[in-house]
Amino acid sequence: MAGAAGALVSIVLVHGGFVDGSGWEPVYTMLKNDGYAVSVVQNPTSSLADDVAATKRVVAGETNPVILVGHSYGGVVITEAGNDPKVRGLVYIAAFAPDRGESVASLIKNPAPGAPVPPILPPQDGYLLLDKTKFAASFAADLPKERADFMANSQLPWGVSALEAAVTEAAWRTKPSWYLVATEDKMIPPEAQRAMSRRAGAMVTEAKGSHAIYVSQPEAVVAAIKNAAKGVGAAAE
User: pTM to 2 decimals?
Assistant: First the structure.
């Protein structure tokens, strides 16, 4: 069981672009089996404001103080939504950790030489998708082919306005944060993850995994979340 740490906090899982909340199932199940209260946000990924609102609705429904966990673009969402007074800590999983005035678009504007380029197709009706034929290699290289194919063919279109929306206040500036770097990530380069985590003053761990590390390596993700729960719990004592 989770013991004191699990009793003190609720875990709210926030997905990123191109996917929905169902990918969190392995992490959700492991945390629930260890006695944690866990909720999963279903972001519309239509705009940052809509996604922050969706996340804050889930936060409002929790009886305990909350740890927000964000994957990829979900990191932008928790950076903004994390300013809610009920939120006590932030966990970034291979995620963007923007500062005030930054967006995904600004963070990816000038990639390092040789960095992989995500296979994002031209926008259609204001929404983005990844090239299905390149999805596995870029997003989910360490998943079984059948699982990667399903994710490629069940993509949730990501709004261009969500990509371009800037954070108004970065919650990591006033609240403790943790960061799990996916060392084999082909969507957000590991060096970019390390740079953002350092800037945020996060407690950092690393694990070998693709951008879909929350699906492929749930044990590493759960360990990072448990570290955050212990840290937040200790601070509350």
Answer: 0.95
